[in-house]
Amino acid sequence: MAISMHKKLVRGHPYWYARECQRVQGKPKIVWQKYLGKAEDIAAAMGAPASIPEPKEILLSDFAAPAALYDLILQLDLIGAIDRHAGKRDQGVSVGTYMALAAINRCLSPRSKAALAEWYQGTVLRRLLPVPVNLLTSQRFWDHMSYLDADKISAIEQDLTRTLMDRFQIDLSCLLYDTTNFFTFIDSFNDAPALARRGKSKEKRMDLRIVGLALLVTKDFHIPLLHQVYPGNMHDATQFASTTETLVARYRLFAQRVHDITLVYDKGNNSQENQTRLDNSSYHFVGSLSPVQHPDLLRIPLSRFHPLPGEDLSGVLAWRTRKHVLGAERTILVTFNPELFLTQAATILRELRKRTGKLRELQRHLAHPSGRGKPLTVESVQEQVQVILSGRHMKELILVKVSGQKGAPHLSYRVDQTTWHRLERTLLGKNILFTDQQSWSDEEIVRAYRGQHHIEEAFKRMKNPHFVSWRPLHHWTDQKIRVHAFYCVLALLLSSLLRRTLAQKGIEASIVKILSTLSNIKEVALLYRDPRSRMQPIVRLSQTTPLQDQLIAALGLRRHLPAVGHTSQEF
Hints:
Helices cover 41% and strands 22% of the residues. By secondary structure, the protein is an alpha+beta fold.
């Protein structure tokens, strides 16, 4: 086909045409012609930018947060560690893949298994960790959860700990142990779970069944090394007794990297039996004692205390001695923290106002009875008073007298100022620490015990409904509850390692701040699905802030953007 330009003069004005001329029966003939316009129109058209075809679809995906956690899963060999112990044939989607997806979901957007496929499709994991969406059903997840039991989970945890020691060089010199519990909505008449029991809920949900969780974490960045799930009605000290055997066995693994390990735990775990087990182990320890059980130590006047050096211990006073406690003579450190004093005093005064207000209401009701219902007796009023004074120190501080006057009960009360001043002088603001680390300085002991708040922060984070969350829990058998706890702890592991990685590169931020900042970085893909169009997908990141740019660079996340040449089908 030969196309040529042809000029026509119309009323003295030149107009240009494109036309094709062919020989028909031996003679030249114009077979196709198209009007192009005047010369200036053609010149203008040649200088105009090419029109960009409109994309058929714009795909927005969660990018930075899933990609960062996916990198950590690869570094941990998490999927491989789980699959080595799960015992499933090498067929279809592996158990480790399901657990990895569940852990990432717990970190970023906790969902039920029924809603997980929808979340997955909205993330870059569909490209980084591809799984057929029809295999992300609740039933498939439950089927694969069935491959894991308590022994396999423990073995997987040991493998992950070895990886943490070898690849991440985590600090094992000081380890923190603590327990918490989580309320559930498992029906009270469901006898299937032995783990979900009514007990002392730390979230004050006495109306619901709870599940207990014990954690051992590093002092730095609270990286979990060991967890155990236990019945919600089990006392902390009883659970610690069952955990010490595992702790002693795990010490042999830790000792490959460090030979001097100090275990820090709270006074709720104290018992003679537990302490004897620890004394016979290779662990050193820092713990705390119940102040009310040692009134002689509380009576030591602050004038005998000395201040501790260091900005982080500003205002803290300490007094050191030796005393026989829990079967042996220990180093004892009594501390006074003015900030703790003010917090405890404010809490008690708030409770005093609340309880005395309820007593005033009861007083008015007794003085002006409504006449409805059963008449109140001295015994029934005393029962109500016991409920009102159920808080800590309330029965000591509020003195109540209930008497009968002309057949009707009478109530009077007063706040005991002597008791209040005694609490201010002896108890408030004080902690009693004990340890076998005789060579440690006072400030070293205090700093080790203060690390305990890290694990408490980890527990709080697991109760956050948005990031690294335990809830929702939609399982009601012990085996499934254990697996649920396992991938929740994996979520805590991934998020803690992410924070540690950034801190090593000079970016200090909380886990919630990091995950929320990364979650706002989206991948935007413009897809051209018209087969006649030669346009490849155009992929960009959403507009970023300076902090987001820092995180992307520090974690090297741009390498997860698709390379030039990807087709629309890959999205």
